[in-house]
Design a protein that fits this description.
The structure is a homodimer. By secondary structure, the first copy, chain A, is mainly alpha-helical. The longest helix of chain A has 22 residues. The first copy, chain A, has one domain: Winged helix-like DNA-binding domain superfamily/Winged helix DNA-binding domain (Arc Repressor Mutant, subunit A, Orthogonal Bundle), CATH 1.10.10.10. In chain A, helix 2 crosses helix 3. A two-stranded antiparallel sheet of chain A has the order 1-2. The interface between A and B is large, with 54 and 54 residues. Chain A binds a DNA duplex through helix 4 and strand 2. Chains A, B: InterPro entries: ArsR-like_HTH (IPR011991), HTH_MarR-typ (IPR000835), MarR/SlyA-like (IPR039422), WH-like_DNA-bd_sf (IPR036388), WH_DNA-bd_sf (IPR036390). Chains A, B: It comes from Kitasatospora kazusensis. Chains A, B: This is HTH marR-type domain-containing protein. Chains A, B: It holds the Pfam family MarR_2.
Chain lengths: 145, 145
Amino acid sequence: MGREVAEALGELLKRSLRSNLYQGLTDGLGEAVDEVTYPVLSGLARYGPCSAAELAAEVGLDRSGVSRRASRLEAGGLVRRGPDPADGRSVLLTLTEEGDRTVAVMRQRLAGRIEASLSSWPPAEARAFARGLRRFIRDGPFGEG
Amino acid sequence: MGREVAEALGELLKRSLRSNLYQGLTDGLGEAVDEVTYPVLSGLARYGPCSAAELAAEVGLDRSGVSRRASRLEAGGLVRRGPDPADGRSVLLTLTEEGDRTVAVMRQRLAGRIEASLSSWPPAEARAFARGLRRFIRDGPFGEG
DNA sequence: TGCCAGTCCGTGCGCCGCGCACGCTAGTCT
DNA sequence: AGACTAGCGTGCGCGGCGCACGGACTGGCA
């Protein structure tokens, strides 16, 4: 049982990293957003305005990496760097309106792609899979993360 | 539906890449095998003796990367480079006995870890999850590769 | 109030792994 | 035999990462 899941997970990882998953998802969305910067964009949308350090914990990266990716997104007009009113040392990353639109489009596309591949499943099985996946993440073989 | 699966997949990717998954799995197995070289080792075990180019397709990498990783494994005594009896240009990568043992141990550990986290599930649900995962890989939103 | 240890940021630095392209060896076909 | 193809390993440049440094700012304490 754990055997097959392990193998399947490996396969999943491989295919995802090969970027078959994100391929073509950014068409027409500008140069700034790609498979490297997307996690930061998406994390920002999920987590809300925050500092790079905070977001780093969220996306599982060093502060420096987040800062650099954010710079790209900033150059592309998807993210704004603003002062933190509560603390002058801190810098708040915020999605611009265009950033908001962009992440919405990408999520829509990705969800649509997944939806499409799930549409051939028996509905009950698809639902069970989604639930199982969430559960596996929650108390699966990962750290606390 | 696709929405939640998409989000869950992202989370899964993140946690896996953070290496919480493979952490501590290589203890006592020598320096050669780590999270970088393991896919090559495992792919070789799965696919059988073959050339670097062939294995490259299997693990989703360039030939050069596979060749370099194989060199490390070779230095560690886990992989042997031998001539292909059928074609003198080709070079066959083969697991040594120790390589075999190593991959067996790692699989055992990984499977055990997954098994453990699945043990708290209702058995039917766990089984359904395993089946769903395989199915999702087979005709999920990835390319053919 | 003036000061200093502590906190937070962005960036220079070195490292590592990748893919591309080259040189080389070994088969293949006329 | 000689040209051409196929396959290998490695040098090269690129890009992203984490570490650690310098600069900006805060907050507590004299």
